[in-house]
């Protein structure tokens, strides 16, 4: 894996910093947790000197010490930490989790949204056999699974607010600078061996999302390998589970997709 050239990094850093600022200004009000939400911010040691991975531990109501807890991590993004930076954060998190008693290592599931969905799939296939924890399932919401497909070719019949092609190129260049790395299983789950994934895989695909065609192909690949795969298809939607964009948010679609995950977890766990 290779990093960016100096001027390439400077250009990407300036653009991405501006985008992050705009995103923070317009979306931060939507991130206030519910009054019933009980969570704790922690810092997980990273392999990099003097760097930590921020994470939230969520506590259910009426929590007791015998209960095991969910963990949400904020991995370090690109262009500061291109491939394999996010995967290394996942690996460091797995290593930390295995040393904690508050997690049930026999009943582990991974999940993520968009780029987080990509990371959940990559971590579940690339790291699963390296740790003692039993990753039983992975739930990926509208993930990109194939960086090798040019953005110009990522199309759906009725797109809903698709990312501009130039912006897609920017994201790909920031995270996977070298074209030859875009078919690496560490970047694109499509190129991982199908049997390397957990037994249970759920993929949520929105009909208005340009990632949907590759998600469908990926799901069929896993099915042929004998994985228990469910592709949850949501019609007339794109990013419909997030309140950050009122024009795209659909509560009934969100509840439908989330209920599918809950039902699966109750069955698998």
Walk me through this protein's architecture.
There is one protein chain. With 269 residues, the protein is of the alpha/beta class. The protein has one domain: Alpha/Beta hydrolase fold, catalytic domain (Rossmann fold, 3-Layer(aba) Sandwich), CATH 3.40.50. It is built from 6 helices and 7 strands; from the N terminus they run αβββαβαβαβαβα. The protein has helices at residues 6-27, 85-97, 115-126, 165-175, 212-224, 251-268, and strands at 38-45, 52-59, 71-74, 108-113, 135-141, 200-206, 228-234. A 4-stranded parallel β-sheet has the order 4-5-6-7, with helices on both faces. It has a 3-stranded antiparallel β-sheet with strand order 1-2-3. The two termini are 36 Å apart.
List descriptors:
3-stranded antiparallel sheet; 269 residues; 6 helices; Rossmann fold; single chain; alpha/beta
What is the CATH level 1 assignment? Answer: Alpha Beta
User: What is the molecular shape?
Assistant: globular
Low-confidence stretches: none
What's the story with the biggest beta sheet?
A: 4 strands, parallel
Order of helices and strands: HEEEHEHEHEHEH
Identify the quaternary structure here.
Answer: single chain
The chain-level structural class is alpha/beta
Proportion of strand residues: 15-25%
The spatial strand order of the largest sheet comes to 4-5-6-7
**Rg, Cα atoms, Å:** 18 Å
Topology (SSEs and partners):
Blueprint: H1 6-27, E1 38-45, E2 52-59, E3 71-74, H2 85-97, E4 108-113, H3 115-126, E5 135-141, H4 165-175, E6 200-206, H5 212-224, E7 228-234, H6 251-268
Parallel strand pairs: 4-5, 5-6, 6-7
Antiparallel strand pairs: 1-2, 2-3
Protein name: Alpha/beta hydrolase fold-3 domain-containing protein
Pfam families: Abhydrolase_3 (PF07859)
Keywords: Hydrolase
